[in-house]
Structures are given as structure tokens and as C-alpha cells.
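Re: your question from the hallway

Yes, I did run it. Sequences:
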Amino acid sequence: MLPNYYCCSSCHEKFEFKFREAVYYLGPTPIGDQVADDTLLNVPVRPAWCKDCASVSLVEDIAPLRTFEAAYGAVRNGLPIEYPFHTDRMDSAGVRGEIEAYLRWRMGRRHAARALCCGGSNYQFMDVATPLIKHAECEFGFINGMCIISGGSYRTPGIYSPINVRVYTSEGDLAGLLTWRTADKSHWKVEALAYPRVVDG
Ligand SMILES: [Zn+2]
Ligand SMILES: [Zn+2]
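Structure:
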């Protein structure tokens, strides 16, 4: 689980996630202005410090292929799994379909895990025992995670307000932003969104 935010132990500056979830688009055609719900898969993520953006961010959590094969085998034997997704409270047909989709995605994935803020790889994971991360202009502090346990809130994502979840290609390239659900709830509208272009020189 992601901490609610991170805080510097010295100056108490607060660092929050700009977004807390992301999805892959795995459809057969290039992404358009809407995508079918069943072509989306949650991105497994870990909290990290992106050194290029100097902020708390999410990095793709891409385990070795054998981990996905083991999860696939467990599901076929009716056992629960926790990675690449939690199977509790899911029906078995849904679990089977989803683990197959993850396995197919993992077999095709080539690019190393990216920081989902900028697509870069200049990051440090924060879910380790002592992530000694310092920020600019602060000599003495280390950035620690803060968790606040809060009750679940009722929401209907994409119906009364846009869900605003970033959608990525199977290689972790930012491809758009999911906003509203279509009336029949089978699709999401997509706004254009891409990584900031780095201009050399
Ligand atoms: Zn500080
Ligand atoms: Zn970044």
C-alpha cells in the first residue's frame, strides 16, 4: 500500500503523489479518443523518488517473467495471489482472464521499469528499509512515508466527475488520460497526454 504522503524529517516539507494509480492500454489498435474497459490493466507500481522530477512518484513494478508464470500456475490451481494483483474478492473467471492478460503483457515487455512521472529511470525506490533520500537545499533531513488510515469513501469514478487516471502503452510510454465513462460504461474517454519532451542543449 502507498503511504498517503512523504515528509522530510528535518524541515517537514511534505511530498505528495501527483497521481496514485495508472493503467496500461493493451488494445490491438493505437489509442484513440476512447478505449474499451476490457483493454485496460492496472499498472503494478512501487513508490519512488524521481531524481529528474525531484518528487515522489510511481515506478512500474515489473517482476521477472517466472514470477508471472508462477502466479499463472497458482491461479490455475485455485490459489490466491498478491502480485501482479490481489485476487481476494474477485470471481475466478475474472482472475483467470486477468492473469492471462498480465502474462501476455510481461512476455512482450522489453523496456526496463520507468518512473511514470516522466518515463525516466533515474529513481530510487522508497518502499525499502531505509530509503535515505535527501532533497535539494536540505542538508539534514530524510524523506519518510506517512500513512493515515482512512475509511473508504463512496465514489462513482468517471460518472459524476472525471477519473483522471493516466494510461500508458505496454512499454510504459504515457499515452493519454482517462476521463469520463461512456453512457454504457464499456468505454472510457481519453484526453491526449504525453511525457514532457526533453530538449537537449
Ligand atoms: Zn527537508
Ligand atoms: Zn520523473
